[in-house]
Structure formats: structure tokens, C-alpha cells
Amino acid sequence: MLVDLLNGWIKDLHIGIQIALFVVGLALGVFCLVKFCDWFVDGAGVIAAKLRVSPLIIGLTVVAMGTSLPELAVSVSDSVTAIRGGNANVAIGNVVGSDICNILLVLGFSTVFTPIAVKKSVNRREMPILLAVTALTTLFVCLFGLHSAADIGDLAITRYEGIILTVGIVIYITYLVIMARRHPEQMDEQQAVGDMPWWKAILFVVAGAVGIIVGGQLVVFGAKGLALEGAAALRLDRDMSEALVGLTIVAVGTSLPELVTSTVAARKGQNELALGNVIGSNIFNMLFVLGISATVNPLTTGSQVLVDVFVMLAVTVMLFLFGLSGRLNRTHGAVLLGCYGVYLVYLVLRTVLGWSF
Fold first, then answer.
1. Which of 41, 47, 301, 305 minimizes the number of CB atoms within 10 Å of its CB?
2. Which pTM value belongs to this model?
């Protein structure tokens, strides 16, 4: 009896230590992603400015790509681990969840502080591009049943589709450069690069990149560990538990750069930056992050992801419709935040009750 009791204590202690390690790993990973992402963007921005690259191009490419690096690090890390078996639930859930979070939580939180003006040019160009990319990603995920394979499971996004998405980001960046050259009047004056020397800027870029990679590994380690422990303790479906963590904890964690940037911009009255940050980040997440992750290894997941991608498409359409009024007001922000709350409740109930939809 005493031996059994001691064995039970030792087992509980071992599980407790594991959970503590997963929590620390997840928290440290999110911290690394946010902190080193700032370093990377700062260093890359200084280098681009010293090379006399337009601040507009810096903002549309370096900053947008920089705030998507946390999602890239997490998704590629999970894609690589999926090679050894299992599904890339965190990789897909991270991107889909981040895009939903960017629109509902980030924009909703920003517009609560101050209304955001939406220019007609944004409704004519940027919004349609975001809608098209979101629809394409939804189509790719919906087609997973048409190219399933017994040896690797249902493919949510194949390697060929990943290559198409990756080519899409090249086309998008090329489009941004062409538009900037056609409309030089929209470019800001060259900003001062400060006193940061070349060596320090390069050090920031290198250290930032390394830190982002390490952070991505830590987030995947912590998130998947917590999901598996929770699934085992509560007897829940493993894939659905991983998807829940990816769609919530990891998605919000990797969206912190967008949340901080957009909220601060809104409070300072820089409304275009707040909206443009979300639009650009979502486009980069789908084309850049999913594209590279699926190219490294085809992304597989459970059928519940179909609901999530349709939610992503629906909130994108809702943002477009709100934008047609020319202004995102506090009422719009409250609606967006309310929708995010409802979505979180649905995710928890789906996982606990084992819903397949």
C-alpha cells in the first residue's frame, strides 16, 4: 500500500514537473518571439534605410514580414516535427488562429480606442487582395480530401499548394514595389536612421533571427506538451487539443507584435498603420508562413480545421463590409471583440465535447 502511494506521488510529481517545463517553455518562447522580432525589424529597418530604400517599402515588406516571423518560426518548427509522425495541428491552427485574432481581437481592440478611417484605395486594392488570398487558402484546405494518402494522412495543404502560396508572396511584394514607384507622392520622406552603426544593425538582424528560431521551437515544445498532457488527463482527442492550443494560446502569443503595434498606432492616431499592419500581416501569414511551412512538409490536420478556415474567411468578409463605410468605429470594434469571445467559447466546447464541426 505504501509503495503504491509513493509511486503515485512520484508519478504526480513527474507530471507536475513536465507541465511546469511546458508552461515555462511556452512563456519563454513567446517572450523570445516578441523581443527578438523587435530586434530583427529594427536592424532590418536601419539597414534598409542606410541603403536608401523607401520607408513605404520598409513598412510594407520588412515590418509586415517581421511581425509574421513568430508565426513562421512556430509553423515551420511544427511542420518539421510532423515529419516524424503526427499532424501539424499547431502549424495550421497558428496561422488560421492568428489571422482571426488579428481581425477580431487586434482590430477590435484598436478601434475601441479610436475609430479607424478606411481609404477608398484600401477598399479598391488591399482589401480585395486579402479576400482573394483568404479565399485561395480556404480552397486549398477544403480540397484536402481530394488528395489524401494512406501513408501520410489527409493533406490540408500539399507541397504543391505550398509552392503556389510561396510564389504568391513574391508576386505580392513585386506588386508593392511597382505601386510604390507609380505613386511616389504616397511615399514618406526618408527617415533618419539614427546613430546605429552598420555592425550593430547586422548584429540585431542575426541575433533576432536566431532568437526567433529558438522561440519558435520553445513555443511548439510547450504548446504541444500542454495539449498532449491535457488531452491525456481529460481524455480528449489529441488532434483537437493541439488545434485548440494552436488556435488560442499560440495564435494570441504570435499575434502580440501586431496587437502592440496596432494598439499603439491607434492611440497615437496613426490609423492607417493600425489597419495596414493587420491586412499586411494576414496576407504574409497565408502566403509566406503557410507557403514555406507546406513546402518544407505537407501540412496535415483534423477535419475540424474546415470550420476554422471558414470562420477566417467570414471575418475577412465582415472586415471588408465594415470598411466599405469608410470608417471602422467603436461599434464595429465591439462587434469584432464580441465575435472573438463567441469563437473562443466554441473552440473550448468543441474540444471538451468532441465536436467534429
1. 47
2. 0.75
